[in-house]
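Quick question, first post here. What does this chain look like in 3D?
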Amino acid sequence: MTGSRSIVKINRAPVLTLWAAVVAQRLGFARNEALTLGRAVAGLNAYSKGVRLGIFAPSPKKLAEQRRKLKPGRRLHVDLLHRAVPVKRTPQGIRALAGGRPIAPASVQHYLESKFGSALPRARAAMVRLARSRSPLVLNHAAYSLYVKFRPSVAAGTRGWGAKGRLDLRRIAALAHR
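> Answer (accepted):
Ran it through. Tokens below.
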């Protein structure tokens, strides 16, 4: 990979979505299941950061409403990149939930295509190589710290919120060789 083909200008959310989906697949989830898990991890991560930066404030009214809507029975979740992702088994397989509803894998794929553009196959291939360079057990524990090592750098605080940075695919490749 040389020069400009190895650098992608992109913000962090789609990078985390793709990486979490790749990790989920390496851990044994089907591709469509993994896509929804990746999107949910990125959403949970963004919300957490938004609360930390004061962009979002948890609403006691909304929390009470969610508690009332909670159906009796077992709540299921998948632990992925240090996030507890709520999931539901559907006739099509496991689907991560957003707002209590299953995420559509096709919408995640479209989102990734729109954000990465023609770089998506190269970025996915680099991430797959990195994921395969670790056993599933090791990857499960190290996935988020690996992401921190290759994610696009952006300004700290609210200045960096949604800003694009440089994703270096060579950096991902180098991590796979360690």
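Helices lie at 12-26, 31-53, 60-69, 105-116, 120-132, 136-150, 169-176.
Residues 3-176 form one domain.
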